[in-house]
Amino acid sequence: MSQAGPRVVVVGESVAGATTVRRLRALGHTGPLTLVGAEPGGGPNRPPLSKHVLDGAQHDDTLGHALDGLDIELVRVAATGLDPAARTLCLADGRALAYDALVLATGAEPRRLAGPGQRGELVLRTLPDAQALRARLDTARSALVVGSGVLGMEVASACARRGVPVTVVDRQPPLERVLGGYLSGLLTARAEAAGIEVLVVDGDVALVGDPVSGLRLPDGTVLSADVVVTCAGDTPCTNWLAGTELAGPHGVHVDEQCRTAVPGIWAVGDVACLDTPCSGRTPFWSQAVAMAGVAAASVLGLPPSGPPTDDYFWTSVAGTSVKAVGPLPVHGPPDDVEGDPDTGNALLTWRHDGGPDTVVAHGRPITAGRLRARSRAGARSSVPAPA
């Protein structure tokens, strides 16, 4: 390692990758720093893709990550392989980058339903994806969305805003996996009031047509639409790590310092799977930022300022915003209600023994900081007073 510090290479111009390089510089790293990204124009900040970009081209130039003034080498070429023993990263243009410390932030890719050779499946992960979908919605008279998770409901909301009749198809009610039944019920009602049809099916669906023109439901019914969008989750981008011990079916496993099992390698964001009591892969923006901060500190041998997890969640369905801090999903009705949930203006609290409350702003304009404070206050109040 040089006297200026380790040569750090971050692979993936995702929010996790961009945050990692910013945190490394903020923590005092003055050594060589390289960010490798596969997208020629740079990786986008993904949340606005479904929340804003589908509404108009004026948002296309607002998605980049702030990298100015960081004194980094920016390499926009795909990583194709890794030699952990030699500590080198292989690139698609034939180059090999040496590193002292490597941070994997290659994110995830959409799970697809199309069969071999079946054309026309629409997904939403990149800016070109969003632009292609937006162009299709310009002339669409109907739309189908497969998946009623966060992305699926945001895409359906964009269709409704643009006056395109849309049906969302899933095995479970909207956002039930993430938020629980009570909040799912509120948001389903808001979606249906906005003209979004929700269809819960018992089994798998299949895309029909070439190019894709509809869905076959488990009972054999075929639904047709001008636009069919698959929002059926994602899979971590680990194919390029084949031949190493890093790639697993659930991503790259890391500990609470975001370290992998291979010395000198960390992983953050959607590609990483935490092997901690709060284990698993959580593909949310707030989690990616939290992991990036921990990894940057760990690379430099510094104590992290917080955990590699963040329980903040935000989405918007049919014009109603939902901000949540605390454990999710929640079960049953809230323990405390301020306002009117049915009109989309409420503050909801679920209390948990021995831990922080889950506090949800349902359509109410409250900052994440205030929600965090209320959640922590619940944790403090649940601690028994000393005898």
From TrEMBL:
Q: Which cofactor does it need?
A: FAD
Q: Which SUPFAM superfamilies match?
A: FAD/NAD(P)-binding domain
Q: Which residues form the FAD/NAD(P)-binding domain?
A: 7-292
UniProt xrefs under InterPro entries: FAD-bd_OxRdtase (IPR050260), FAD/NAD-bd_sf (IPR036188), FAD/NAD-binding_dom (IPR023753)
Instruction: Tell me what this protein is called.
Output: FAD-dependent oxidoreductase
Keyword flag Flavoprotein: yes
Q: Pfam family example for this protein?
A: Pyr_redox_2
Among the GO molecular function terms of this UniProt record, one is: oxidoreductase activity
Q: Which UniProt keywords apply?
A: FAD, Flavoprotein
